[in-house]
Amino acid sequence: MFRKKRNFRKIGKANNDIAPDEIFLDSSNLPKFNTSQFEGRMEKPINKRTIIATSLIFLFIGIVFSGRVWHLQISRGEELKLRSQDNNLQNIIQFSERGIIYDRNGKELAWNALAEEERDFPERKYMAKKGLSHLLGFVDYPKKDSSGRYYEYKISGQDGVEKYFEEELGGETGLQIIETNVFGETLSESVIDRADNGRDIVLSIDWRIQNKLYELIEQTAKISDFQGGAGLIMDVENGELLAIVSYPEYDSQVLTNKKDTEKISAYTSDPKKPFLNRAVSGLYTPGSIIKPFIALAALEEEIISPQKSILSTGSISIQNPYNPEQKSVFRDWKAHGFVDMRKALAVSSNVYFYAIGGGYEDQEGLGITRIEKYLKNFGFGKITGIDVGEENDGVVPNPRWKKEVFNDDWRLGDTYITSIGQFGFQLTPLQVLRGAAMIANKGKLLKPTVLAGEMPIVEKEIKIDDGKFEIVREGMREAVLSGTAGSLNFPYIRIAAKTGTAELGVLKESVNSWILGFWPYEKPRYAFAVVMERRESKNPIGGLFVATNLIDWMRQNTPEYLEEAEK
User: What is the CATH number of the domain that holds 165?
Assistant: First the structure.
């Protein structure tokens, strides 16, 4: 029994040294056992390096995966959520259709047409006639980003009527949402906001007169080498403009389409400034066209009777206050002899207006304070509030202005030359036109408009007796019958007018050529103003030439404005 136990211990010890595969080892295979190929073995212990390497790989994968999950869900979660929604919901902009612009007779000046290239909105088209661009302006189309999505949602007016009446013409953009599945198939459609098309507007402008007036100004500029010009016609009863022209101009269609970059670049570099709307923003020395307003102020202040005559020998001289041996000479453009107020207006005598403006010998003058007061009251040096273009206000010279600009005191000679529309005077053609209409309607300073059928807006009533207006009007009529505006003496329409030649530069080497007036003389209906900008002073063709040819053309092509006026 003792032996058996001993044998048991031996067997147990042996068991601790026997590998499992040895238990099942086929004794017939024993001689062929190959330890290097593990033949006959069931397993081998894993190397520690393998375990560590495998653990590091799994740890790295875990870290990368966790980082990616954090980046997608935390860092860019909201962005990706919205992108996911966009994949299912498409926001489609519904562009409104812009309102059509008509002239007073129903002629389309700006309208919409099918796009010649792929667009989500119609193209804006403009009448291909000269003289309309500053009036109408142009538009900018909505723009897209690099992904093809619109970041602008409206066609927007950029100048002229298109800009000023943007709210009426532009309408409201709409929005449609389309839901699609992953295959791009439409699941549902819904309109959040419907597009609201713009309203049509009717202008007071007659495109035929607008076009012809532009062509005449262009022709005159080329003949006489003017840099530019402007012309306007206004209804003196309601302030509606029949024409408002600025030369030179840009092309509304070119600036809207923005394809002809060469032409657009030429506009930008042109020294004649085709982007400047001279009718409302151009500032010009008025010259003698200011004389009717000086005469009206003198009558109202009762410093002279209309019958009193003043002798013009061609100039006046006053003592130089700083040098007793010198006199300052102020010249007339010719010696007119004795002239009363009506004749002084007709022949445009400078000496007469020197005397009533600044005083001379026994004649009292208005003085610069009263001159400034009246001219400002007549609307000069102030914006008119017109519904097209950005206006400039201009300058009526006065001692404060001279001190600020030249750091110098005001002198009597400054009053003299201010009285004939020289020195620092700067007015817009629109201000001059409104002044002419104020004389024609005897005191109503109207707000000008390019819209037809609006209620007239009277900015102010000039409290001057009708009889005083009549004296000035008679002088302007005499200018047509026997004075400086003789070419306007037509047998079929009676016109009153005042010409002006404003000298420019220190050497007076160039001039602005002006004319203002109204028709018919007895019962005025329309006022007009034309300025031709800067040419050599020796050339006689200017504003009067434009006005004469326009009236003659209207007789044949738009006689209703002359016939209606005569009734």
Answer: 3.90.1310.10
Mean predicted lDDT score pLDDT of the chain: 87
Mean pLDDT, rounded, for 544-548: 98
Q: What is the DSSP string of 10-35?
A: HHHHHHHH--HHHHT--TTTGGG--G
Same structural domain, 533 and 407: yes
pTM for this predicted structure: 0.82
How far, in whole angstroms, is CA 536 from its chain's centroid? 30
Residues near 445 by beta carbon (within 8 Å), at least 6 away in sequence? 378, 379, 434, 438, 458, 459, 460, 461, 462
Shared-domain flag, residues 215 and 183 = no
Higher pLDDT, 45 or 329: 329
User: Residue 413 belongs to what H/E stretch?
Assistant: helix 412-419
CB atoms within 10 A of CB 272: 13
Position 174 pLDDT exceeds 50? yes
Interatomic CA distance for residues 200 and 169, integer angstroms: 6
In a domain, 85, yes or no: no
Q: What is the DSSP string of 466-496?
A: HHHHHHHHHHHHHHHHHSTTGGG--SS---E
Based on the fold, state whether residues 155 and 224 are members of the same structural domain: no
Query: How far is 372 from 127, CA to CA, in rounded Å?
Result: 43
Q: Are residues 395 and 361 in the same domain?
A: yes
- Of 104, 531, 493, 522, which Cα lies nearest the Cα of 282? 531
DSSP sequence for 383-405 = ----SSS-----B---HHHHHHH
Residue-level pLDDT at 12: 44
- Specify whether 160 is located in the same domain as 292: no
- The candidate with the shortest Cα–Cα distance to 110, out of 79, 85, 88, 135, is 135
Query: How far, in Å, CA of 199 to CA of 249, rounded?
Result: 27
Q: What percent of the chain has pLDDT over 90?
A: 67
In this structure, the answer to whether residues 212 and 357 fall within a common structural domain is yes
Model confidence over 337-372: pLDDT tens digits?
999 999 999 999 999 999 999 999 999 999 999 999
Query: CA of 354: how far to CAs of 52, 229, 392, in Å?
Result: 111, 28, 28
CA 264-429-270 angle, to 5 degrees, is 20
pLDDT, average across residues 194-223: 95
Domain identity same for 456 and 549: yes
Regarding beta strands 510-519 and 526-536, do their DSSP bridges make them parallel or antiparallel, or are they unpaired? antiparallel
Check residue 60 and give its pLDDT. 79
Q: What range defines the domain where residue 46 resides?
A: 20-75
Domain boundary among 176, 202, 228: 202
Pairing of strands 201-202, 101-102: parallel
Indicate whether 14 belongs to any domain: no
Asked which of 60-64, 69-73, 268-272 is least confident by mean pLDDT, the reply is: 69-73
pLDDT score for 11: 40
Which two tokens mark 185?
Answer: 């198939």
Helix pair 291-301, 466-482: axis angle to 10 deg: 140
Worst-scoring range by mean pLDDT, 168-182, 442-456, 485-499?
168-182
Q: Is the pLDDT of residue 27 over 50?
A: no
Positive or negative torsion for Cα 79, 83, 84, 85: positive
How many domains would you assign to the chain?
Answer: 3
Average pLDDT over residues 317-324: 82
